[in-house]
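Cross-posting from the modeling subforum.

Setting up a comparison between two proteins and wanted a second pair of eyes on the formatting. Protein 1 (sequence, then structure tokens):
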Amino acid sequence: MKAWLTGSVEEAEAALAELLSGAATQASPGECRVSFERVGAEARLVVRVPVRSPAPAPESLFHLAGLSGGASPGAGLVLVRWTFESLGGGLEAAVEGPSLVLTASVPAGDG
């Protein structure tokens, strides 16, 4: 699968690294699942992380509350979302059963 990046490759690499390292820190070894898929005109990276009780509200993951006193846990995801949006895609979060699902998307290429 190909994906067209309409922005900085370095920013895309940094956003992917932040997304994957953040997911890995929330999961025990072997618990984080990553897959790639094409849906219509989008290439998607789907990251599934087991939810610890209680499950967070998906949109709360993107809040910057508390930045004046230091980095917020959502600060990294805010920057990841912004980067994927600047590349013509986005970042969505959902809770599906026992997993937090983060889906990053960019426009898919032909082929």
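Protein 2 (same layout):
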Amino acid sequence: MDQKIYSKPNIVQSSIECAKWPRCALVAAARPEVAWTNIVSERSMLSKSVTIHAKKEKVWELIGDPNKIPVYDEGVVEIDWVNKDTLKVKDVFRTGEGSFKTQVFTVKILKKEPPSLIQYEMERDGHKEFFTFTIEGEPKGRTSIFTLQFDSNFALANPRDVELLLEKICVNIARLSTDKDTFEKMVREFEPPGR
């Protein structure tokens, strides 16, 4: 693993495209459906799953490399490797009051099982959060089921915000893993309900 500082590349066009997904009727054709599970009150557990029109190995190319986190998680602006399993991550996010805040936190890679699973432990403000990325390939290999699970040792004050963040990450990973021709075909073949 490369032990250098990683700064976010200029991916403005991609970010703009992904931001349009929920709002554009035409592009919504290829926006994947995201399923989620319940929230546990004494601690927080959320899980999002999405079907991706790409082979498992293609999805792994994106999520299996921690250097690519800024590509699919738009809040992450910089990664600095501490050692082979630990990174310092700089994140910019909007607070509940609408202002922006920058926070640096430590992320450890707990488990990595290519091409199926990578698990991170994130510690900030004395709290631990766990993110588990899993990929299941379908038998014919043309699509994959990607699941992002969030688990923390505390109850969230804002579970809906975290849910939306997980959904956005799932959608970004689905879009970035799908090749251009497949994506355009999905848009062309989409028929809105009720037509």
